[in-house]
Amino acid sequence: MAHSFPNIGTMLRNLFTVATRNIKRQKFFAVIHLIGLSIGLMCCIVIGLYTYHELKNDTFHTQGDRIYRINQTFIWGDDDALFGSTGPAVADAIADEVPEFEAMTRVHPTGSKLISTTKNGQSVVFEEADILAVDPNFLGIFSFPLIAGDSSTALNKPQSVIITESTAKKYFNEEDALGQYLEIGDPDTKKSYVITGVSQDPPTNSHIQFDFLISMNSLPHVADRRDSWMWTTFVTFGLMREDASPGKVASKVADVPGKYLEAFLQKYRGISYQEFIDSGEEWDLYIQPLLDIHLRSENVYSRLNQVGSMRNLYILWIVGGLILGLSLINFINLSTAKATSRAKEVGIRKVIGSSRKLLIYQFLTESFVYVLASVMIAFFLVEMILPMFNGLIDTQLTTNTLVNPSAIFLLVLTTVFIGLLSGIYPAFYLSSFRPAKVLKGKIAQGLKGGRVRNILVTAQFTISISMIASTLIVRDQVNYWMNYDLGFERHNKIIIENMNRMKGSEEGLKNAILSHPQVAQVSITSDTPPMIFDFDNFSRSVGENYNISVNYLTVDEHFIDVIGLDIKHGRGFKKDFNDSTNIVVNEYFAKAFGFTSPASALNQTIRYNDVEFSIIGVVNDFNTTLSSETYPVALLDHKAPIFRNPQPKMIVDLNRELSGDETVALLKSFEAKWLGLNDQSPFSYSFLDQEYKEIFTKTINFGKLLSALAFLAVLIACLGLIGLVAFVIEKRTKEIGVRKVLGATVLNIWIMLSSDFGKLLLLGFLIAAPLTWYAMGQWIQNYELRTNISLLTIIWAGVLMVLIAILTTCYQTLKASQINPVEYLNEE
Question: pLDDT tens-digit profile of 149-176?
Fold first, then answer.
């Protein structure tokens, strides 16, 4: 036994030496092997990093496995989705009824606010969006460590604020921020907040993101409406006891509305809870584990952050596996294809005494050399593409994540697995040659592998066509959204935000903007379609009682013209009329409230907020929820006597599409006019069509990612095709020479060399088409607004693969067919 270790070391050294010599002898195929494997491994590493980031979302909270969010029925329409937020009263009701929760806490996104302070003797003002109002016990439930301040008392008092470390540097440079003051709010309503804590920046894998945490008791209007179940802007969390049963807790939470909604509905809607249920409406509460929120909330509207998608993660895993599979197929195909050139080597080795076991070790060693080299190249490629990948999906992935024992062990295990997977079939195949037949020149009888190779090539074409088709289908879905008829005009519209900050200067700004020659008209509105978030119940009593949830917004007399609605009956709002108790409705509104026709709704009365409104006009149906369903919509005059927290904005309708330079110049002009009337608030704007496009950002970015992966898949398949074509040409040189002598044309030679691959490509398409149709059909079902998968799209994917295959092979085949046949036959 004492001599076994040096012998093993010597054997490994010899195996490695022979392997590297063989690799050097076939440089062309070695490059194809390395590129293919490196790309496959690169994709797997990047997808692995992204998967780790997604699966680790919110896991940094020490009590994360006991934190649950309270979801509720989407009460503002007929949507089957849930709301990830509730009214302010829900937390107290659950605390009273469900003792299994140790504590309840609420998070209330306040919207954008002005933050001002004095820096170097001068006042500086910033518009900040990531501001959350939270209950005092928020930091006792969630693990957002403070680097300054006491987390148990920091949010106890009104006008207390915690800021993040990066925000502290932004406002105070290197000064100590603790105890300093910030002015929060509009110029005429701002209050002074004392900084009672500085927290670490929330990790990127937290679904709760913030720059400011203000104490909930700083907001008097929250206390005023603490009994509300309808003001659903509060994300409610509960910390469950360790010994509690989530199933029993869920059942208790589900019983809460039946007990507590009665008083609220009687007070605000004049109906009992039973009458509410009997009308066909629902108001249910559910619990959802914190650790499920990020990846399992596709059917839940989130107020705190965009959520991820377990479905898309599954797709990435499948795609990553397919790309790695393509790399391995290339390796196996080219290794077995080169078998004839190594048959004599194997025969001689067997004759001089090499065992089959030793030959298997030799070929496996070659495989591991390729894999190890590919892993190193893959890490280099990952470092190069990570910045681009992070920009695409808005993350901050780094390879530092891999510097831990678990990741290193997994990488080593994966490397060994891939080395075995890629090398085991070629090793057993190459070592199986019968030396007697091989050395007599009967090489063909010593080889069997063409059928397996054809199966693997077909699999390559199937995967590549499926990837191309899937990318084209995602593109079709995005184009469907971009060209979808929303019922209004969204192009050439600039939105100027926060018009409430003008405080008496609205008309001055409006007139200043209207004076610009590129502006057609402007309108002031409470919101802009296609996402109108104001829903409330409107009613009508005409023998039958109608009490229906309506999507509504307040507008001025220009709104209908500015967004291009069509007045079907009656009129719109007029400046010279007193329209404060008049409303304009869409056609579906008239149908939902039981009018015999849209025209018959004119001058009829609808009740809302204890006010009788008269219908003066009916406009076409237009999309306000990005749903395929149509909802009743009401336009109220901006002077209507209703309660709402006004956040008006101005829509500027341009008279034509502007160039980039023209747009920049126009926005600078608008900003100058804004600051000339209000220099205490920064100018903020957006584009209506861009706002619409941003709603689909996740899918658009997913499509880009899928396109990149499809490109890599096709590239790997092409590399394999190049290698196989080179091998075929090498083995059929004499046949090519004979055919040329007998009069074969260049086209004849090209068809001869390509026909076998053409048959495999056709077979690959026939397999890929139904698979892609089914898989992408399942994916597309998750969208309310969805296109139909076109057969032409899948055919076009096949055509693209044919063109790519022709371009990939034509250089080698044409070059081979043009060489003088004497060069092929001179050895004869």
Answer: 999 999 999 999 999 999 999 998 878 9
